[in-house]
Amino acid sequence: MIKKVALSSLSLVMVSTASAFEITGSAGAELRYYLQDALYTEQERTYGSLFLSPEIYSEFNEGQDTLIFKPFYRFDEHDKERSHGDIRELQWAHYQDNWETKIGVGKVFWGQTESIHLVDIINQTDSVESVDGEAKLGQPMLNFSYFSNYGNFSAFVMPYFRERTFQSVEGRLRPPLAISDAIYESSSEQSNLDYALRWQSSIGDWEVGLSYFSGTTREPELITSISQDGNVSINPYYAQINQLGIDLLKVSGAWLLKLESIYREGQSEDFTALVTGFEYTQEGILGSRYGIGYLLEYQYDERDNNFFAIGQNDIMLGLRIMANDIAGTETLFGFIQDLDNESTYSAYIEASSRLSANWRWKLDGYFFSSNDEEDPFFFLRRDDHIQFSLEYYF
Amino acid sequence: MKSFLSAFFLVGIGLVSNTVLAAEIKGDKEAITIAKERKARDEGWGTNEANVLMVLKNSQGREATRELNVKSLEVENDGDKALTVFESPRDVKGTAFLSFSHALEADEQWIFLPALKRVKRISSQSKSGPFVGSEFAFEDMTSYEVEKFSYSLLGEDEVNGEKCFVLKQVPEYDFSGYSYQKVWIDKAHYRVQKVEFYDRKESLLKILTLLDYKQFKDKYWRPMKSLMRNIQTNKSTSLITEEITFDTDLKESDFDKNSLKRVR
């Protein structure tokens, strides 16, 4: 009898568990083709790769608690550092009306601008994954948020640091040497306890955010060193920093006015950086379905050029073309000019469209130019590439 | 965007606000009385949640579908709030729109992009743009508020077997894609049966037909099918309500930017 009850309750649990888990995600194939011969002998012209990113989700307590697990893996045929896995998310969230907690590995986005994300600092950039810096590594965290009429307050405690990913010696888009092991300012290295605070609110036509971060910088500085036996190495150095950030957006008819600014102390110099601009949208171009967004952003950074911070005095012009069709076709053109050096500029195109309810293609192209040996783009001057991806969503 | 359902031209606002704002509504008296009655008949519906199937057809008759979940909250003395979440197509699963409609000031809208975990504010100009590639514009999806238009009575007609008033309504809000609309409102229940949308050049652009009206809570009528046909391109979009529940325990806090990030 007891056995029977136990058995039936077990099967009940299994049934409810089975129905409570939702598995979705995406997988895809990508082909990257570099337009010029490589600068360095180990590099190739063509790179094929495959990725898989399932997402397992469950909720209980009538949706007040959720669990999410989102692993990621990419296999690259040449670049063994780009063949990499990550836990994008593994998080338990508990939701109440005016507060929530999240524990585990997660992703958080802060900010308003398009050409560069200065304020966004919680997650490390997965820089081997995408050139535009939008791909992020999962960040272990404890997060508490409180929602009030005076805006949303969030606190983050981050017990473990994620190193930025870098190409291997077989990969393109790198300095003359592959970037090697990380060096930390903190004696706790990756286990330094970082924390962050944020307030964000919508006030009429405005979106306003303030943030503070204290801990290991997400954006390393590159240090070149020569060992005793004469070997040169480039290492990322992760300093302890404090960073204050502000992000603003104002809606004004067809205009979105945007600004992000940070003040950071603790790296080789203390500095201010700023990005500001607008996005202007027009719908029904010449009586068609097409919509166009015009983007302009000015980037300023007090520092001299460094490998990861290139927006010293630069301007980005962008054009977003929305077909507004069933396939959701969209193309974004961008052009970034260094105002201090005519020969330094970059351009990109990001286009995508749906093939069916489950398939999507993407075509991206990135182009870099510099004659200035001091400029980071000088290393990338022959790394212009286009990539085509086919993605399946399930 | 807005509850498709309240979208569908129903919805009530407090009588108080109607009287306060009455002086500001332009148009002929008879037409304004009809517009107000349409609004008044749909006052007090509270909250609802619906699963909606969107079927898009191109001019060759090829179909694509989207599944949406729409939660709506009536706001007294203002436009309604709505949260729309995409279930399919899969590449946009989890994408969510939050909109606060307003009578005359610009609507407030946000979109949540799940892959980036980013909440973005949308500019008011996008109002006239197509909603996710469909024949519905964002502005067709927002809740009906009397103050949004000025009115004139064009006459009477019969549509879908119902005797109707025919109103001409001219958008009073900024960034509309229309010069005016013709609206057929039935005499029996003041439900919208048909709308003709005229583009900025005053040519007929689209015709919306609302079908299979069902009554909820013994008072509120909702069309279970809405068909929008673009006359100029011969494309069409249908919205089919597969399931709708009223008096769900939705609260104000289910319609803010945090709720956008929580959606599934």
TrEMBL record, chain B:
Top-rank taxon: Bacteria
Keyword annotations: Lipoprotein, Signal
Domain Uncharacterized protein TP-0789 intervals: 80-262
Keyword Repeat (UniProt): no
CDD domains named among the record's database cross-references: LolA_like
Gene3D superfamilies attached to this UniProt entry: Lipoprotein localisation LolA/LolB/LppX
Keyword 4Fe-4S (UniProt): no
Stretch forming the signal peptide: 1-22
Record-given protein name: Outer membrane lipoprotein-sorting protein
Species whose genome carries this gene: Alteromonas gracilis
